[in-house]
Amino acid sequence: MVFVGKAQEKCTVYRTERRRNPRTGRSYAWIVKSAALVNQYYFYCVDRDFGPFFLKFCSYFPYNAKLCLNGHEYVKRQLEQLAIAYESLDNGILSCKHPERLQSLCNGLSAEKIDALLRKWLARLPHPFSGRDRQAGYRYDLSILQIELSLTQVLDRPVTGRIFFEEVIRENLDIGRPKQVQLIFDRWVTRSTPGLFRTRVITDGVVPSLHVDYKGTRIKQYHKEGRALRTETTINNAEDFYVGKRLHNLPALRCIGFRANRRLLEVEKITHDCILAEETFQQINRPRQVASQRASALRFGDPQVQALWSALLVFTWLPTGFSNRNLRDHFAFLLGRTLQELGRGQMTYQLRRLRLHGIIERIPQSHRYRVTDTGLRIALFFTRTYARILRPVLPKHYPKYRALIAPCAVASINFNRRSIYASMPQDLLPKI
Predict the structure, then answer these.
(1) Model confidence at 409, in pLDDT bands (50, 70, 90)?
(2) Domain boundary at 214, 239, 273, which?
């Protein structure tokens, strides 16, 4: 026992009130749910197997209790008992002599062990249920109020890791949108799905963190202690995933949380790791012969090719792929042309050379296509290199060779009931 504390906190309680039967006029007692400020008793302890934890008891009916423990502290105690050398990283592990054994210990934290910890300390600590109450069948039963599941990836070059994480934040500001969130949690998101779908970047000092919300669940990602990339999924309501709150549902919730962590990292890995080898770059920029079919080159500086890459990125995550018409809609818009000006045959030509270059593949027994892993890397590399390096950097170094601005007609695009004016001469700009 380390510390015992008492504090008044607002919590949910059950009170009795007197009601009257409208037919007989007789009064009777009725239990109602309400809130009240009552005493809470905290017991901070250190367990031989679980390390530091605390138990909190409410002094008012129905005498709720809360058990809070840290799985990392449990693992540290187990490593010490097995005499396995390790290096701590706050509430994580930086390094371990036997990482496979460490992972097995993490997987071994079961519902049965947590329940045994509670029973062990209930036998030692004073709590609202007396021995007579327990004999009558009144006892505590564990349910999961909140569970935090983390994945810590230690970086061998911390400075490079910080640069990587800042790029991750920059490129994934839309990760909180419904279409992205449903990929991370493998759940359909509709208009009736409750909760705020947003991405927040919160800076604590100089350390930024990325936050994604889904119903009552939050994913937090940050650069921990300057040494590791930490991804944490906190589930505040197990019923958001149609899983019960009882402790025996711990394996199902662990599976959901760890999958969410890895899906988020998978999306970020694909979007960030798009560097191409020199040979691959040259192959794309040259014509290609596949059997008796010949595909023209996808020139890096060709505006049509750049528009093609940008259009392909729209259909990256569609499980059913895309059709000729789907790609033609976006391709024509990026070229500033109408569907009538861009015929179906022209789009078929573009699909054919993308397929022969290995950028896309046809879904069997259908007229739909999907982007290959290689195609995704190529599209990301070409679009980002062109948009982030060539366009912004070249005008700074060669100001004399900037494009001349020619007079053009007024163009307006309706967006959210507002009008955005683009590519218009100075004398035609509206006065605001």
Answers:
(1) very low
(2) 273
- Closest listed residue to residue 231, CA positions, set 269, 260, 200, 207: 260
DSSP assignment string, 311-349: HHHHTTT-TT-B-HHHHHHHHHHHHT--TTTS-HHHHHH
Give every CB contact of residue 32 below 8 A, 6+ residues apart in sequence: 14, 15, 16, 17
CA atoms within 13 A on the CB side of 35: 3
Model pLDDT for residues 245-275, shown as the tens digit of each residue = 999 999 999 999 998 888 888 777 655 555 6
Pick from 238, 355, 379: nearest CA to 306: 379
Contact 120, 223 (CB under 8 A): no
- Domain housing 181: 143-273
Q: State the burial class of residue 376 (Cβ atoms within 10 Å of its Cβ: 0-12, 13-18, 19+).
A: buried
pLDDT reported for residue 403: 52
Count: domains in the chain: 3
Residues 378 and 297 in one domain: yes
Q: Where are the beta strands (DSSP E) in 49-146?
A: 51-58, 65-69, 86-89, 92-96
Average pLDDT of 84-88?
Answer: 93
Confidence of residue 70 (pLDDT cuts 50, 70, 90): very high
Mean pLDDT of 110-126: 93
Q: Name the token pair of 200.
A: 């927040």
CATH code, domain carrying 160: 3.30.310
* Assigned domain for 429 exists: no
**Which pTM does this prediction carry?**
0.62
pLDDT digits (tens, 9 = 90+) for 156-206: 876 667 777 777 777 776 666 665 666 666 666 666 676 666 667 777 665
Structure tokens at 410: 């007024």
Q: Could you give the 3-state DSSP secondary structure of residue 285?
A: coil
- The terminus-to-terminus CA distance of the chain in angstroms comes to 69
Decide: helix, strand or coil at residue 25.
Answer: coil
Longest dimension (CA), the chain: 97
3-class DSSP assignment, residue 56 = strand
Contact 92, 153 (CB under 8 A): no
